[in-house]
Each structure stands twice: as structure tokens, then as C-alpha cells.
Fold this sequence. Notes:
Shape: globular
Order of helices and strands: HHHHHHHHHHH
Oligomer: single chain
Protein name: TetR/AcrR family transcriptional regulator
InterPro entries: Homeodomain-like_sf (IPR009057), HTH-type_TetR-like_transc_reg (IPR050109), HTH_TetR (IPR001647)
Number of helices: 11
Keywords: DNA-binding
Pfam families: TetR_N (PF00440)
Amino acid sequence: MVTVTDDDGPRPRIVDAAARLLEDGGSEAVSTRAVSAAAGVQAPTIYRLFGDKQGLLDAVVSHGFETYLAEKMVREESDDPVADLRAGWDLHIGLALERPALYTLMYARPDGAGYSPAARAAFAVLAALVRRIAVAGRLRVAEGRAVGLVHSTGTGTALSLIAVPPGKRDPGLSDAAREAVIAAITTDAPAAPEPGPLAAAISLRAALDQVDVLTDAERALLAEWLDKVASGPVSTT
């Protein structure tokens, strides 16, 4: 954990104190009283800056997620978008195993309010990775389904691993789940093995924002048609 300073007022100090409490005792340890004492501020300051405890937890999660990415993101984007998806999966699972309390707050908030802002940012990164695969012509299913499969399988794998004591975890579970999903959504070559409307629709839909000759209405209509082709059955006769 990187300790922050008071250069920007008490907010960084409060977030840092709450993050330490989270790592040591989980979300239940992050009470307003405990954070106030650890950060050396009064409770009203926390409410003024974050609104409520959930607002504070969201700030802690966002800070922790950004810090983790800054520590781990040393690999530049490669020419192989599928390899980059593999790296993104491993980074995702690594966050879960190294900082389980933080990860659980990202994807399984105790208030039932859905994903945290940090989780939604991570989802956007995943969508961008899948978009690159689609543009390369290597996606065998519609983008939305591919993103959903990777996201649901990845978070499910991570939360399942967190729930098991480290010494009893299946060390190959994450790799097996990753490769199963990648096999389900991608092709082995830059083009579909049997060119047809499905592959063409997926690739064109992914690159549609680069088409400048259409009006907004025409682009929206074409996107609707392409989504329908990419999501529907394709005749093999």
C-alpha cells in the first residue's frame, strides 16, 4: 500500500487510512469511527468529503485499483489482441488473489448496490480488449456476448478462488477457465476459418466507428443490422 500525504487536504489521508483498515480486517473494519481515529479527522469531515460509508468505500476501491494497475501495468499493448486478453485475465485474477478484500468490494458490494465505479472501469477496459479482437477478425461470437462470457467467467473464477483457503486452491483453475473462454470466443487465425456473414458482421460492427461516409442515422441503422446478423444463427447449407 502506498502511503499518501496531506498535499491535497485530508481526503488522501482518509482514503489511505480506510485502505489499511480494509486490508487488515475487511470491509467490516472500515467504520467511520475507526477511519476517523486512524486518519486523525472528525467524522463530519468524512461525511462532507464522501457522503457516507459506501462513498468512502468506493473511493478506497478506486484508489486501490488504480494503484494496483500502476504497479502491474508494465506490459505494453502487443500486436496480438488475444495475447493481451490473456494478460488482462491474469492481471484480473492477480488482483483478486493479492487483494481479496478490495476485489470483493469491487464485484460483490455488501449493500447489494451492484458493481463499484472501479469495477465498471475494469469492464470498459475488457470491452476495449474484445473490440480489438473483433477488429482483427478473430472473434467468433458477437462482441456483447464475448465481453459477457469473459466478464462472468473471470469474476466467478476470482470469487471462487477467494472463497477457498490458499493452500487448498486448484492452481490450474484460472488457466483452465481462461483458455476455455478464449477458445469459445476467438479463432486461431486473423480471419475466420470459413469466411461468411457472421465473421464479416462482427468485424465490420467493431470497426463501424471508423466509417466516415455514413450519417449518424445510417450508422445506427447499420449497427442494428450487424448486431442482428452477429447474434443470429447462420445457415451452413
